[in-house]
Design goal:
This protein is an alpha+beta fold. 27% of the residues lie in helices and 25% in strands. It has a single domain, classed as Creatinase/methionine aminopeptidase superfamily (Creatine Amidinohydrolase, Alpha-Beta Complex), CATH 3.90.230.10. A 5-stranded antiparallel beta sheet has the order 8-7-9-14-15. Strands 1, 2, 4 and 5 form a 4-stranded antiparallel beta sheet that branches. A 3-stranded antiparallel beta sheet has the order 3-12-11, with no helix packed on it. The chain starts with 11 loop residues before the first helix and ends with a helix. The protein binds magnesium ion (2 copies).
Length: 265
């Protein structure tokens, strides 16, 4: 039996396996960007994700069946923060935002990444929400350095949000990741520099700021899964799996870059 609070450090070889799974997610997001368009259902996106993941040798969707989750990936729109269940009757419309949260298990090791896509043209505030949340992720990753503390990561999110009038979701947190999707330590999106568990070489963390255009309070819908903002304001979610190395943080889940990201993010 493992002690409940044990933090599992990963070897360089193990980190390479996680990076291979992470690359599948990065490539998937590249493919998803041009597919997140009006008229597409979240079920269709889920089917595309599952097929894409399974087309890679040894890779399976890590969230499928995890705690009983019914989809291959989590797809959450607008006021939904996380854990949205893919549905035939949830259809993307112009101006929506859609967060796709993907876990891949490859050769027994997990990676986890989320991206929020704009569907067509979004309004100015929504655009700002996406930009600030992505910048918060970048800052949080940059703060994840060997010798620092977990609180440095949340503090970086808070600084990135600054005086933008946005809520930082506190009741959902990032996490260690490895053999299991969710491992120790928890990685909150708020924190104080120098507080929390020590950041050590070989830690692999899923860092995942979730911001809203209003309340930082959350509710779970009657489906038992979908988490929404309490005031139904829009929410964005960006996540990377990051390895802590002596050379600094290494992102293992590639971001969508190039045309997809620029035109459709
Ligand atoms: Mg995730
Ligand atoms: Mg996660």
């Amino acid at each position: 039996m493992r002690p409940r609070k044990m933090i599992h450090l990963k070897s360089p070889q193990e980190i390479e396996i996680i990076a291979r799974g992470g690359a599948v997610i990065g490539a998937l997001f590249q493919e998803l960007a041009p597919r997140a368009v009006p008229g597409v259902s979240t079920r269709q996106l889920d089917e595309f994700c599952e097929e894409f993941i399974r087309s890679h040798d040894g890779a399976v969707p890590a969230f499928q069946g995890l705690y009983g989750f019914p989809g291959a990936v989590c797809i959450s729109m607008n006021e939904e923060i996380v854990h949205g269940i893919p549905r035939d009757d949830r259809v993307l419309d112009e101006g929506d935002i859609v967060s796709v949260d993907v876990g891949v298990k490859l050769d027994g090791w997990c990676s986890d990444s989320a991206w929020t896509f704009a569907v067509g043209e979004v309004d100015h505030r929504t655009r700002s929400l996406l930009d600030v949340t992505e910048a918060a992720l970048d800052a949080a990753v940059e703060a994840a350095r060997v010798g620092g503390h977990v609180g440095d990561i949340g503090a970086a999110v808070m600084t990135a949000v600054g005086d933008h009038a946005m809520g930082i979701v506190r009741d959902l947190v990032g996490h260690g990741i490895g053999r299991e999707v969710h491992e120790e330590p928890q990685v909150p999106n708020v924190g104080r520099v120098g507080y929390g568990p020590l950041l050590r070489e070989g830690m692999v963390l899923a860092i995942e700021p979730m911001l809203s255009l209003g309340s930082d309070q959350i509710q779970t819908l009657d489906d038992g899964w979908t988490v929404v903002t309490a005031d139904r304001s829009r929410s964005a979610h960006f996540e990377h799996t990051v390895a802590l190395t002596s050379d600094g943080p290494r992102i293992l889940t590639g971001a969508p870059t190039g045309a997809g990201s620029e035109t459709n993010r």
